[in-house]
Design goal:
By secondary structure, the chain is mainly beta. The protein has helices spanning 61-75, 87-99; strands at residues 14-18, 23-31, 35-40, 44-49, 53-57, 102-114, 119-132, 135-148, 152-166, 171-182, 187-203, 207-222, 227-242, 250-261, 269-282, 285-296, 306-317. It is elongated, with a radius of gyration of 22 Å. The relative contact order is 0.14. Residues 68-103 are annotated as: Disordered.
């Protein structure tokens, strides 16, 4: 899906940083051995397992002291007989882990594509996010090898980056840039630049929803054809719901993005959507089953009008 969607929570009052890269803002009301409780404006009090919290920022000195104490206890487990460690090394490692601004994921998988030319895909997906204060920079790389046109391997590649600059607790600006090539569709290159305004509708422990929209510009080169230039209206949405109350370790997600030509006779629409379930196998390793839908209302070159894809992905988060 589009890498231009970013879900993040800015610094406002107290802030809890989670191990999956999310941040929750509000007022931290308690810090205990098993849980951290934060009172938010949009979801009320949330109880978060302490082992999911990698960093806590609070204006309350007592809360900060309790968190520092809990972090020290977590960083200093009882040592096994015959083993020893240097306290300075433990503190340094813990501090480095808590302060790291990086998060990301790596996925490998297989997909079956149902289109005018049905085919198989072998794919590698990598996402990285870098968060500083209330801003976030995302980099998304998607590389797919497809067995199509007989036994010839052809490539599809996409690289995208997006930068979220928060103006308020939920409202942000999101400039982004994406490059794509697709030898199946005779697409030599497609470069898309956007400037979107986004809004975090909600972002809690159980679910999150982010929407954004704005203008864009696309420059597209088709093999043996001219270069096309389009002014666009673009939009994106991302929703995730953790289903722990039904099945432990399972979450539902839905993402979609679209772009339509503002000028021109065709009013061409490009629309992408993916819906799936993600299952946490153990630790940071997970398995995802995804259904994708890609629509091009006015295909250029050898592009298909409609593609339906079923993907199975094995991923790891850090």
């Amino acid at each position: 899906m589009s890498p231009l969607i970013v879900s993040a929570v800015p610094v406002a009052a107290d802030q809890v940083h989670l191990d999956n890269g999310d941040r929750i803002s509000g007022e931290v009301v308690s810090v205990e051995e098993g849980a951290v409780v934060i009172d938010t404006d949009y979801s009320g009090p949330l109880s978060i397992a302490a082992d999911r919290v990698v960093r806590l920022e609070s204006e309350d000195e007592d809360i900060s002291l309790r968190w520092d104490s809990l972090r020290e206890r977590r960083a200093s487990p009882p040592e096994a007989e015959g083993e020893s460690s240097t306290p300075g090394e433990e503190a340094e490692a813990t501090e480095g882990e808590a302060e790291s601004p990086w998060s990301g994921s790596l996925e490998v998988g297989f997909a079956a594509v149902d289109a005018a030319r049905s085919r198989q895909e072998y794919l590698v997906d990598m996402e990285n996010a870098w968060t500083v204060e209330d801003d976030r920079l995302d980099l998304d790389v998607d590389i797919r090898h497809e067995r199509a046109r007989g036994n010839t391997l052809v490539d599809r590649q996409r690289v995208g980056t997006a930068y979220n600059r928060y103006l308020t607790d939920r409202l942000f600006l999101a400039p982004g840039l994406q490059y794509r090539r697709d030898s199946v569709a005779d697409l030599e290159r497609r470069i898309t630049a956007v400037m979107q305004a986004g809004y975090d509708v909600f972002n809690s422990k159980e679910q999150s929803l982010t929407v954004q929209a704005g203008p864009g510009y696309r420059r597209e080169k088709i093999e043996d054809e001219e270069v096309y230039q389009d002014l666009l209206a673009v939009w994106d949405a991302r929703y995730e719901r953790r289903l722990s109350s039904l099945v432990e370790g399972v979450s539902f997600f839905h993402e979609q993005s679209g772009a339509t030509d503002v000028y021109g006779e065709t009013g061409r629409l490009l629309f992408e959507m993916e819906t799936g379930l993600r299952y946490k196998i153990f630790g940071d390793l997970y398995l995802a089953g995804v259904t994708e839908l890609d629509l091009d209302s006015d295909p250029r070159g050898e592009a298909d009008h409609l593609e339906r894809t079923l993907r199975l992905r094995l991923g790891y988060k850090w």
